[in-house]
Amino acid sequence: MSAPPPLKFKLHKADRPRKRLRPEVVEVAPAAPGSASAQDAEWDEQDQGNEKLNKVVQDIEEHLLKLFRQERAPVIRQERTAAFRVVLLRDYFVIEGLGLALPYSADNQRFLQRLEAGRLPWDQLRAIPELSKQCEGHYVNGALRVVVEDRRMPEHA
């Protein structure tokens, strides 16, 4: 059993002025079973085009949701190891793993003051490529864990 054909409405002006227009129902004869009109064929093509478009949009939405979920997935580290260790000695300081003894120059003092304030200067970190490589994989939410040992006092030696 097929659905009844859609009703078409025609508006006409009422006899009295300043009145609303009344719709008039116009009956449409149903098409013979098995025969499709040109309009039906056109609507079928539009439906197929819309289905393809909807599928493409759905695929894009699924892909974007997948990417969004990957970005939002929390990075959980079982152990939060230090990116590097700084050992402060009487006349110089050492960054373990690099084999460098750095004097307390103005630039290095600024580096240590920033570490003490809880900030790591990016430009100075990049200035020492070995240290930058050592920090890779230790970032957690944009932060690095740095251990500082102060052995400047005689009782620490």
From TrEMBL:
Residues 9-21 have a biased composition (Basic residues). Residues 1-49 are annotated as: Disordered. This is Uncharacterized protein.
